[in-house]
Amino acid sequence: MPVPPLRRSCRALLVDDEGKVLLQRHVLDHGTVWAAPGGLLEPGEDGDAALVRSVRDAVGLRLAPGVVQHLVWIQTVDAAELGDGAADGLRDEVYLVRVPRFSPLRRPRGHAGMPDDAVTEVRWWSRDEIGSATRAGERFSPRDLHARLLPLLESASRGVIPSPVAIEGL
Question: What is the mean pLDDT of the chain?
Answer without folding.
Answer: 85
